Amino acid sequence: MQITSPAFKENARIALHDAGLQKALGNLKEGFPVKRSTAVARMPEFEQLRDEGTALKNHILENLDIYLEQFEANVIKNGGHVHWCRTPEDACKKILDICEEVDAKTVTKGKSMVSEEINLNDYLEKNGVEPIETDLGEYILQLRGDHPSHIIAPAIHLNLEDVSEIFHEKHKRPKSSDPKVLMQEAREMLREKFAGADVGITGANFLVAETGSTIIVTNEGNGDLTQTLPKTHIVVTSIEKVVPTLEDMTLFLRLLARSATGQEFTVYNTLSTGPRRAGDQDGPENFHVVLVDNGRSEMVGSEFQEMLRCIRCSACMNHCPVYGAIGGHSYGWVYPGPMGSVLTPKMIGIEEAGLLPNASTFCGKCESVCPVRIPLPKLMRHWREDEFSKHLSPKAVRWGIGGWAFFAKRPTLYRLLSISSNLFLRVMAGKKGHIKKIPLAGGWTDGRDMPAPRGKTFMSQYKSRKQR
Amino acid sequence: MHAPEKPIKVGLFVTCLVDMFRPSIGFATIKLLENAGCKVSVPEAQTCCGQPAFNSGDKKSTQDIARQTIQAFDGYEYVVGPSGSCIGMLHHYTELFDESDPWKARAEDLKKRAFEITSFLTDVLDFNTILSKYDAKATYHDSCAGLRELGVKQQPRKLLAKVANLTLNEMEESETCCGFGGTFCVKYPDISNRMVENKTSNIVDSGATTLLGGDLGCLLNMAGKLKRQGHKIETRHIVEVLAGMTDEPAIGDADYELGQPA
Ligand code: SF4
Q: What ipTM was estimated for this complex?
C-alpha cells in the first residue's frame, strides 16, 4: 500500500469535496455511535467493565513476555507452530515460505489489519501466490484495487452504487442494486474459491495463553470457512493480542462488540486450537501463528505503552469529528482515526506521519469512548513533543510558538502585545463588529468572519476602573 | 455554602482571549463571583495558560508559563476563570513536572483550587441566586475541555434555568467539537471549517435565537461562521447572561446605534 500520509492535508481537502464519500460518512455517523450508546445504556456495569479491561491490559503488558511464551508453549503442545517476526518483511517472508512448503497457488483470507500492516497481499502476488479476500468488505475492495478505510468496516467509504458497479464489471452478471442479490452473488463467487484454496490466512482478535488458542470474531462466518477448509491455517497477528485465560478473553469480547457495533456479542466467535486432531471431523492439518512485532515491543516501557491496550474496536474513529469529516483514506496508511494517529508515526515514522497527530482538536471524544481508556489525545501530544524536540515541526509553527512564548513569559511585554493586537483588530473591523479578511490569517477568514474585540483589553480597562 | 461574612479570596484567571476580545466576560465573571460573596482580585503576572505551547509540543515553554501562572496565583483560596479549556490547562500543569520536582506539588495544589466559573458557582458555592432576565430561546454548546476534562454539563444549565424569560432549546450533537481546537483551526482550516459548518447547522436547526457557551475560543469560531453564513443568531458567553450584562452587542455584532442588524 502506498503511503500518502505526508499529503494528509491535500487528501483531506479532496475528501471534503467528494460527494460519494460524504454520503457514506453520513451513514457512518448515524450508525455506529448510536448503536454503541444504545448498547452501553442497556448495560449499567459497562463503565466498570472498561475499568476491568484497562487494568487487565495493563497487567498483561507488564507481563507480556511471560504470557507470550506460555501461549507459544501451548500452541506447540497442540501441534502447531509459532513464528516470531520482528519486521513486516520477516513476516511476509515466513508466510510465503509456509505457502511454498505446501505448494500453495491460492490462499483465502479472513479480514486482518495486521496483514494490511505488513502489506501481505502485494508480497504474495509478486511471488506467485494469489490471495483471495473472503470478508465481504475486503472482497469488494480487492475487486476495486482499493484499501480499507476503517478497521472493522473496511469498505465504509463506499455506497451501494459502487458495489453494484464493480460486481457487474467483475462478475459479468446483470447489474443489481439489491443488497440481497449482491450478497448472494459474492457468496457464490467465494464458495468456489474456498473449496480450491490451499492455505487459509486469518488474523486474530485475541490469543489465549492458557490454551494456545486464537480467536477471530466476524459477523459473516467467512472466517470459519477460511480456517477450516484449507489444509494449512496461518494466523497472522501481533504480540499485544495475548490474554491470559479464556475467561479474560470473554471480558474483552463483551467490551469489543459493544464498543464496535453495539452488539451484545459478535455473531461468529471462532476459536482455533492447533491443527486437526485424530477423530476431528474437519480442520487444517497444519497450524501456524505468525507473531508480528513491527515496533510494538519498543512501545513497551515507553510513553506510548498505553496504546498497546488497543483492542481494535474502532470506537475512537466512529466518534471522531475529524474522521467523520474526511474518512479513513485521508490518513494515508493502514490505521486511520485517533488510534491511527498514534500508531502510524510509530510504524512508518514521524517524519512521514507528522501531520496525523497534529490533526486533532483534542476534543477528547475518542478517549471518552475507548473501551480500554487509552488517553489518545495525550499520546498524540507526545508525538507533537517528539516532533518539536527533533525540530520537525514546520518552521511557521516553531517560530510562531517561539515568538508568542517569548511574550507569554513576560507579563509586561505581553500586555503591550495584547493591547496592540486588540487595537489592530478593532481598526480592521471599523464599525462592523467583525472582519471579513485578515492578512496572513486566511486559515480563519476564508471560511468564517473574525469577530472584532469589544473595547480595550480587559487588563487596561480593569486598571483604569481600579484607579477611578 | 460558605458563610457570607467571611469573603472567599478568589483570583480571576482572565484568559488571553477574554483579555483581548471580550473584556465584558471578565467583568461579568467578577460580578457573579462578588454576588456570590467572593473577594476577587486579578493578579498582574498572568498571561495565557500556555495551551498553544503545550499542544504544539513545546514542553519547555509550557513549563515556564506554568511556573509563572502557579506563582501568580499563590495564596488565593480559589482560581476561577470563564473557560473550561484554560482551567483544564491549569489542571494539566501536573503532567509537566516529575515527581521529584518541587513544582509538581505546587501544580497539584493549583489543580485543586482551579475551577471553571459555572462549576465553581454550582459545585463549590452552591450559589443559585441568579437575578437576571434575558428574552431569548437559547441553545448551549458544550465545549470539549470543560465537558470532558472538568465534567461541566449540568452546571450551566442549572444556572440558566434561573434566568427569567429564557428558554433552552437543546441542539443536536451539543457535545460535538465545533472545530476550533486552538491552533487546529488555522493549521487545518478545511477540516475545521467543515466541523463548524456542521455545528452551525445544528444551531440553526434548534430554532434558537441565541447561542451560549462557556469558552470564548469556540464562541468566536461559531459566531464567525454564523456571521459569514448571514444568520441573525446572537452569540454570547454564558456569564454575560447570568450577570445581566447583555447591553454589550453580541459577539461579532456591530454597535446597535449604527442601525445594523444585531
Ligand atoms: S484506541 Fe480504543 S477506541 Fe480506538 S480502536 Fe483502540 S480500543 Fe477501540
A: 0.94
